[in-house]
Structures are given as C-alpha cells and as structure tokens.
Design the sequence.
C-alpha cells in the first residue's frame, strides 16, 4: 500500500523507471488515467507510458514543455495548453471513449475543453505500463532526455470514463471506484534509481 508515499526519480536525465502490473482481461474502449507529479523539469518528459507490441504510444501522458500536456491514444495525440506550473504538485486525469472519440483532460480538479481523438479505436490489452520513461518499443527504447525526474504519486487507471464528480474526487484523494491500477494496491517493480519515500506534504 503506497498511501501517502511517492516514487522519487532522483536523477536527471535518467534511465530509471517503474513497471506497473495491471489485470487487463480485454481491450479498452474507454479509460481514465490519473496521477500526481512534482518536478522542476522544463525539458520534455513522460508521465505515463502504456505500450502494446503493435503501438508504442497506445496510451501516453507526455509533457513536452511546462505549459503543455500531450495525451496520446493509439499513436495520435491532442495537446492541452496549461498555465505554467508554480513549481507545485500537478494532478492530471485524462479520459477517452472510443464511441465518440472524446478526450477529456483535467488539471488540478478542473476540466479543459474536450477534444476529439481516435474515434472507434480500441486500446490493446497486452501492455507494458511504465512510469518515468517513454517507450519507443514494447517495454524499452528509452530516450533519457524524455525521462521523468521528480516525484510521482496517486497513479490510477480505470477501464471507464470517470464522471466529473469522480474526477474531482481523484484530485482531492477521496474514495474512488475499483481500478485496473490503484495506488493503494499497486503491483510494481522498480528498475534503477527510484526510491519510495513518504510524501513531504499534502
């Protein structure tokens, strides 16, 4: 149980990452991914990388610069422009539904204008899910200059689109529905220089 704990990615640039094990029985037609990050990086970095053998950017949350997030599904992406952070924790949730191709992006409990992405697509179930690196091949192909350095916590993946109430609940660390990946029951493996530490403050 990683309650009130964080992964600290200590080096910059880094070859370290964390592998997450999710129990995916079938391909995803809808999903929501949420996490909280704390970094002073200004270069591009990957936050959440979900690759299949067919598509290395099956699901990717990527931050190319401080005022921009990119959300990939099936190798295509939409960009969400955000105010440059005040060097504080940033909580992001991204959700997608195949039927409409609607991509939702929430930052610190607030929704951004929705965008269209990969309508009718299906996300493959046999996946390598990584924190801290961006996969250019299944489970590998890392560029250290896209690596994450800083602190990550509260990582979740659901096989549904969360309601606005649940999006806000995720930001506030309130009770959440059962998830494919849940921070409080995370199955993970650390590769390289990543340390689990208590969170310094709420």
Sequence:
């Amino acid at each position: 149980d990683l309650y009130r704990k964080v992964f600290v990615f200590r080096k910059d640039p880094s070859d370290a990452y964390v592998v997450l094990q999710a129990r995916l029985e079938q391909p995803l037609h809808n999903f929501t991914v949420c996490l909280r990050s704390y970094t002073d990086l200004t270069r591009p970095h990957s936050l959440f990388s979900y690759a299949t053998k067919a598509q290395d950017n099956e699901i990717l949350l990527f931050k190319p610069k401080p005022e921009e997030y990119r959300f990939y599904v099936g190798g295509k992406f939409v960009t969400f422009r955000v105010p440059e952070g005040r060097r504080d924790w940033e909580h992001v949730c991204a959700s997608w539904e195949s039927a409409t191709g609607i991509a939702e992006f929430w930052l610190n409990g607030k929704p951004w204008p929705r965008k269209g992405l990969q309508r009718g697509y299906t996300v493959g179930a046999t996946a390598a899910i990584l924190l801290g690196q961006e996969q250019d091949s299944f489970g590998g192909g890392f560029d250290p200059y896209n690596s994450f350095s800083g602190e990550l916590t509260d990582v979740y993946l659901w096989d549904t689109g969360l309601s606005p109430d649940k999006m806000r609940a995720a930001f506030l660390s309130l009770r959440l529905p059962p998830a494919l990946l849940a921070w409080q029951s995370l199955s993970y493996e650390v590769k390289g220089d990543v340390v689990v530490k208590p969170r310094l403050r709420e």
In short: The helical segments are 164-171. The mean pLDDT is 96.
